[in-house]
Amino acid sequence: MGTTQLESVPEPKYWHLKTVLTEALDSEFSVGEILPNERDLAARFGVARATLRQALEQLELEGRLQRRRGVGTTVAPPRVGVAVGTDPHAWPGAPGDAWRPVDCTVALPPGAVADLLETGRDERVHTVRRSRVTHGRPVAADLLYVPDASVPDLSAIDAASGAARARAVLRELQRLELEGQDQAVELGSASAEDAKELDRLPGAPVLVVTTRYYAEDRTAAVSVATYRADTCRLTFGDAGDVEIHHDPERRAS
Amino acid sequence: MGTTQLESVPEPKYWHLKTVLTEALDSEFSVGEILPNERDLAARFGVARATLRQALEQLELEGRLQRRRGVGTTVAPPRVGVAVGTDPHAWPGAPGDAWRPVDCTVALPPGAVADLLETGRDERVHTVRRSRVTHGRPVAADLLYVPDASVPDLSAIDAASGAARARAVLRELQRLELEGQDQAVELGSASAEDAKELDRLPGAPVLVVTTRYYAEDRTAAVSVATYRADTCRLTFGDAGDVEIHHDPERRAS
Question: What residues does the HTH gntR-type domain cover (chains A, B) (predicted)?
Fold first, then answer.
């Protein structure tokens, strides 16, 4: 049964090329090295440019290659493990938080966020923008949506915008008792704004982590964080980082 | 500073098209509906086929569209929330487990898995293949790697392979006291084997979840699960499912 199906969907040409390229990357190239240009690579492996490009795209998805404007295609370093939700009992901005507050505005949240917050689609909420840097590189951008009801004592005397305002919102949020949180991870593509912050091109694949924070029996805040999918491995659990290194050939049988 | 950078990286043409297409999807099409063909769409929006294709690829990444062999491009249903690691104190195969054992072989694990298990690169391990179905659709394929040391009483009398063997390995594993687990999520591309199981084409983007299980002060088993990135949203935490629905325009300011 399996065989018949396999035969009816023949393995695409670029798939075999990908395997060959992976072996070449392992044996001939080192991290950071620039690959020959597409024309030379296509000639070396005896394939059409379109086939080569498909294989390169696959290897980029798997984190083996990086394509950068003005640099070309380079061999990627192993993905960095980035701890997500290590402490389910801490608010954003609590001591030890890996995020840096950047800005804060008051704006209409996306409809899906408004539904989670039960604020109604026409209610503006505090929107804290934060960024996360690991090993000196931008790895994630975050928007934290906080309705007025969660920060009732937030004073208008505090800075009206900017990082100071962001810190004021986070400080007020921490006065609530956090009852729990849950998270979801899905695939997305970088918006123009995220792309700029993450040093990627718009549309690049990203991992989107949505966290819902509960307090006083309701959703008190929602965070939508966008992680670079090329360089990040998101880690969950006590040990923080699962020390699994890049291995594209996870099948060995 | 931000502005200068934005101006130096102009928004690509397909990006604007994507926004326009998203609005059309929301207002004119319903879930499951087949989109007009590329030529007609390109003509309607006055863009080149290549630009259209880029926009469609983006929308596929974001889970708004599905492209299927022999069917064409259809409007995707909202992603399904799939709970990952809901109970950190249960072994794979414990009651309530969402996975179905399919097969079991003895094979060399990938190098990265061997390193996690500290088995040495030339030691073969029990390799349990499992699959997960949600709402009648295949959503994930899993390989669970179990070294001999974790199932010392596994009897050769049990079935030598197949689902019965898989169940025997899981049953033996459950005799160990589970001390904890951690998980990592990253982007990958479907191998030919995964693709067949997940009803996708090889190379399709997938979310790869690596789970390390600890017992007796060491890594007793490693699971590498591959989830469809187009239809799944992975959920973590007590509440199981973060009820956030698809909203590609998460920025509202």
Answer: 11-78
